[in-house]
Design brief:
This protein is of the alpha+beta class and about 270 residues long. The protein contains 4 helices and 17 strands. The termini are far apart.
């Protein structure tokens, strides 16, 4: 029975503003789960004498598995506990291998490595995956499309923003001669895209699931029956993640692991 809004992000209507606020709250709740769509890869280069390194600005909740040093093909051990970190530092960096890491602090450089890289490790590159805050992306870039000043677009995994706007003309944002684009997010640098900034934005998580979450939260805010939709929403959260991610096959027979190098079963036969 609600009037459909012509615009939501810029709406002044009280109901539309409330629905948008509820949408963002549901997005924040949903991104607490390990959605494969939110997994990102980034890297940093070791610098001699530098122990701490910046996390991506869209870093949300976790590093997925261990970071890997691709130059010497060794993983970093961790994240280690505060007790393990203090014990290691008390040894005075007596050990040079394996390198280990810990996340701490509130400043930009929150990923700490021990032992501190020396001149022999300088220039080596560490790659890792993490869960991003970016649950939303702008509409895909297309040629002959009109953009207003301050608009965003998405192409090949990257976020772009334009300060002047215009009509796109080219094959990608990088060679667009109609609109001047700059990177909004490159390898996690610049800013997160964690909410809807335009009506044409798309949710990276299942949009039906998002809509169901908004419905039951809106009904609850009005004192109307909502429990049936909340139960359906919770069930759908549990079933939607496996639909996208699947699960690893466990082998009962001996199998050589490329990562672990162990020719042993991945699970114990019964």
């Amino acid at each position: 029975g609600l009037t459909e809004a012509t615009s939501v992000v810029t709406a002044t209507d009280r109901v539309a503003k409330q629905l948008l606020a509820i949408t963002h709250r549901v997005l924040n709740d949903l991104r607490q789960y390990p959605w494969p769509q939110l997994a990102r890869e980034t890297y940093f280069t070791l610098v001699a004498g530098t122990a701490s390194y910046a996390l991506p600005s869209d870093f949300d909740s976790r590093i997925i598995e261990a970071p890997w040093n691709r130059d010497n093909t060794w993983p970093l051990y961790g994240p280690i506990s505060a007790d393990e970190w203090q014990y290691s530092k008390a040894l005075g960096n007596a050990s040079t291998f394996p390198q280990q890491f810990r996340l701490k602090g509130y400043e930009t450089a929150q990923l700490f490595i021990d032992p501190t890289p020396g001149t022999s490790e300088a220039g080596q590159v560490i790659y890792y995956e993490y869960q991003s805050k970016n649950v939303v992306r702008p509409k895909l870039w297309e040629t002959n499309d009109i953009y207003a000043a301050g608009s965003y677009t998405f192409y090949n995994g990257f976020y772009f923003v334009t300060s002047l706007g215009g009509t796109t003309n080219g094959t990608t944002p990088l060679n667009d001669v109609g609109v001047n684009w700059s990177y909004f997010k490159t390898e996690g640098v610049d800013g997160p895209y964690d909410k809807f900034l335009a009506d044409t934005d798309e949710c990276l998580i299942d949009q039906d699931l998002l809509g169901l979450g908004v419905q039951w939260n809106y009904l609850a805010s009005k004192g109307l029956p909502y429990q049936h939709l909340e139960a359906k929403y919770n069930d759908n959260v549990k079933s939607t993640i496996p639909k996208f991610a699947g699960a690893k096959t466990l082998y009962l027979a001996k199998r050589l692991s490329v990562v672990r190098g162990l020719n042993v079963p991945e699970t114990i036969p019964t």
